[in-house]
Amino acid sequence: MLNFFKKNAALIWANKHVQKSNDFKQNAEKNQEKLLLELVKTAEKTLFGREHQFENIKSIKDFQKNVQIADYEDLKPYIEKVKRGQRNILWTETPEYFAKTSGTTSGSKYIPISKEGMPYQVAGAQSALFHYISKKGNADFVNGKMIFLQGSPELEEVFGIKTGRLSGIVAHHIPNYLQKNRLPSWETNLMEDWEAKVDKIVEETEKENMTLISGIPPWLIMYFEKLIEKNGKKIKQLFPNLQLIVTGGVNYEPYREKMEELLGGKVDIVQTFPASEGFFAFQDDYTKEGLLLLTNHGIFYEFIPLEEYGKPNAQRLTLKKIELNKDYALILTTNSGLWAYSIGDVVRFIDKNPHRILVSGRTKHFTSAFGEHVIAFEVEEAMKATVEKFPAQITEFHLAPQVNPEEGLPYHEWFIEFEKEPENLDLFKNELDDQLRKRNTYYDDLISGNILQKLKISKLSKNAFQEYAKSEGKLGGQNKIPRLANDRKIADLLSQNVI
Hints:
Blueprint: H1 2-26, H2 28-42, H3 47-51, H4 60-66, H5 72-83, E1 97-102, E2 108-113, H6 118-136, E3 145-148, E4 156-158, E5 161-164, H7 166-170, H8 176-179, E6 182-183, H9 186-189, H10 194-205, E7 210-214, H11 217-231, H12 235-238, E8 244-248, H13 256-263, E9 268-275, E10 278-282, E11 291-293, E12 299-305, E13 327-334, E14 341-352, E15 355-362, E16 366-367, E17 374-375, H14 376-389, E18 393-402, E19 411-420, H15 425-439, H16 441-448, E20 456-459, H17 464-471, H18 489-494
Parallel strand pairs: 1-5, 3-6, 3-7, 7-8, 8-9, 19-20
Antiparallel strand pairs: 1-2, 4-5, 9-10, 10-11, 11-15, 12-13, 13-14, 14-15, 16-17, 18-19
Helix pairs in contact: 1-6, 10-11, 11-13, 14-15, 15-16
């Protein structure tokens, strides 16, 4: 009886939530400007607001004139003041949390999360589940066990501000109605050694009635492989009531075939787009690609055409001016005190009614050693199309330029860890090259003009990417290995595992 009540209550809540959300979907463009002016008004007396004359900002145009695009280095002096306990710097109060992330040029980054911003991190995930329940008319998963593969919830204090990984922070805000069914145990979540942690999670979950599993694809694959190795059964055999996988952090498509093989049966997938800076989007239509952009979650969005990113006087477009199927650098202004902040993600709109996006890459993750400017979305789509034509399975891959080969023309080198190698690697290689040429005209011109030779594939030994991540101290957590680079730093390390 209790399970019946929980399921039906979830269905009622979900339908009400989805109905209520129709307003922001239909009025996103108008509401975005209203939101920006509210954020500016709230922060008018902060140090940042005074320095940027917020009292004179009456429109989006005024805001763009007064506030330049910023990255973490630009905001770091303000954040350092906040870390020292100063108030009214970027936002009206000191942050409730710092989400600590790994940076390359800046070392560790401390992303502020205000008391206004924190609820939206949880609400984004909750809304994704409510949309799923309403769309499918099914809430069976609420009666089983749920696992959230995440970083440690143990938080340190930086001048009185609780600080940790985003997933660890969110662990403190899981709604009470989910706590009873939640796994793994708190003690296991606190473990820092990722491999030992996954082994313990396997031990705690293998006999349970798992109905929902959440995590980024590389973690899920590692967890599933350990379950299968220990039990000799596919995941749907172990967990016959597993209904839903919620994933995010990276594009799911390149992992889909591998995941389907490990699952061994049908499981619904909901993709999300969370980050330390905010919860931006989730999948609300399960018949096609695309994530619903959350325009009512305390974030004002701007979009810079990718070809203009980093240039003086680059266009800063709002939702009214974006075009479909074009790549944009994502710029955020948030209710946690980030102002015109370049998060580093690249998005592509595939729908305007409502606004749906694909995450197509990172502004710093591209290959353009020869002027081709290949981005992650292009290589992932090329790989996806190639794998569909060949009976092959990919665990992971990385692309890097080879500018100075020992002989012949330069080329793109693809480091691929195969789960199942194609019968004819040469045909696979040629198809992959053709698929990338179809998606990037500059690359096509370089090949046809004999500036580059066709790509080359370097096969990697099993678990090569896990070993690389472990050697770099980036196994687990929210760490992701870039799919492509403009140098050979990662490539040179992966080369040690070439078969």
